[in-house]
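Lab meeting minutes (informal)
Scribe: AK
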Amino acid sequence: MSLSPRSPEEAGRAATPLELFFDLCFVVAIAQAAAQLHHAEVEHHVAPGVVSYLMIFFAIWWAWMNVTWFASAYDSDDTWYRLAVFVQIAGVLAIAAAIPAAFDDRDFSGVVLGYVIMRLAMVSLWLRAAAGDPRRRHTCVRYAGGIAVLQIGWVLWLLVPASLQLAGFLTLMLLELALPIWAEQVGRTPWHPHHIAERYGLLTIIVLGEGILSILVAFQVAGGDRTAELVLTGVGGVVIVCSMWWLYFSKPAATTMSRARTAFEAGSPRRAFLWGYGHYFIFASAAAVGAGLAAAVDLIAAEGVTDSLAVAVPLALFIVLVALLPGLAPIRTQATVSAIAAAALVAGAAIGLPLLLLSLIIPAQLLILAGVGGRARSSSLPAHAAGDA
């Protein structure tokens, strides 16, 4: 009934069919959250829509992230583990079903129920890991106990007055984020760097899929007097989503995480936590780009109005955050070029530039970063090697 630790040096470690199935089920919840954000943008309820979206996305992402890192560290292919994952799938489906009520009526009871189901399943897994890994038993017990206590907090949060709801949420969210930092102080879990990099890459593809769906709708509803606008918006969406994919996967994530793993084992977990936690905003902004594309299509089809801010703002956030991940070009150069591109996106959308024109900013950014990266690699070679190249 116990779970044994896995080696972080294990060769050929890849996502399992169960993990792929788990991700597929999370698509449903992410799609629901993005769809509700899209409706909020169309109905001009942007501020409350964004707040609800970020709150719900945290519940989805945090539950996914905890399962991902646990499965990277511990043996995850027995019957009881599979059943625990199935329970968590039921929990995320409960969240997905409750998302409309959370957006429309500020009723988060269904979301909390689904979240608590998923997190209590994690308690059972950490207790099994504690039994199978004596070296890290205190770490596993800290995880199990901390998660259990926090779930009581989430249930009590439902009783908080509406005026204090956001403050209570932020408090519990910070406690959730602090739990792994506290637990890992007494023993480092043996997560696999290449496995983590692959798992994050897979979820990135999932959130980018929200944009693909919006592009499909743009082409499907094209007709009448607004055919040209819708088609050009769809083409701009294709350029944006493909460029986002290129931008993210141009980063050597596996190499980055291997270095983070080495530092983690040496007692410096900062890089691993920043990389893992920072993806909350990358994932949320990527899915929000899809919601913005859907809103742009709806506004053009219904009112003939072009509003690109709902796309430009999360897209600008995405490209700046991705620039903060270590890459081939110097980090300062990446940050500078990405900040300029982000400012150009938001400014262009604010003055009403069409989405197709805005979409060309990221390919231009990629070309500049590729040139800078090429020069940086050449300058690092010995003189004779650079001449041979």
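Next up, CB showed the second protein from the same session:
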Amino acid sequence: MNKGVGGPDINLAIQVILNCGQRVAGSCEGGNPTGAYAFVKQLSDEGKGIPYDTCMTYQALDGQCDFEDGVNPSGTCMTCATFGVPCVDVDKYPNATVAEYGSVSGEQQMMAEIYARGPIACGVNAMPLVNYTGGVYSDDRKFNFIDHEVSVVGWGVDDKTGQKYWMMRNSWGEYWGEMGWARIERGSNTLAIEKDCTWATFGSYTETNFPCYEGGENC
């Protein structure tokens, strides 16, 4: 999420979903974006929101919602002041909220949603992409099983072949594909990418924080 000229991009704390949203959003063993948005919407309705990742970094581990000792992922926001001092949880932290979320599918509906409100999360069958190295990926096989979520941010047409494609952002790192991205054939439900997508709009985000001490003693 981009804050514009007022500050840097916001990266939300995915780890909080793994710590506290497992019943709704899923876990490291599997989940879906609709559940993740539902969990953030629940936090939003409670007046909490989801924090920025600067106070709960992603560790790719299922954690505990109740804060423990800061050694394993737990809680919602924490600070570790210095070596040899226990980490503490922070109750007042910058956060963002979700206003609405819903589902969308099909080429035209997906294009309309992206044009109107930005990137969407889509499920795909990812196994054929493991060895993808570039170009517009096409596949005549019909995939119904979804095992991965990606971000579809736009669309285009290949200048040389005229092939339509989706611009897909993956989470596997910039060493993969086209600097972490892939172009997937558009209009044929390739890899089931047009089958199950989710959109969301944010409600608000913190621009002025409550200034906590570095050690969190006053928060």
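CB comment: Residues 33-45 form the longest helix (13 residues).
No objections, moving on.
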